[in-house]
Amino acid sequence: MKKILILIFIVFSQNALSGTYLISDAKIIRISSTSSNLDEFMIWTTGGSGPCPGNEGIKFTLVDSGSPEVFNKAYSMALAAFAGDFVVRVHNYHDSTCNRASYIDIKR
Question: Which of 34, 70, 78, 90 fits as disulfide partner to 65, beta carbons 3.0 to 4.6 Å?
Answer without folding.
Answer: 70
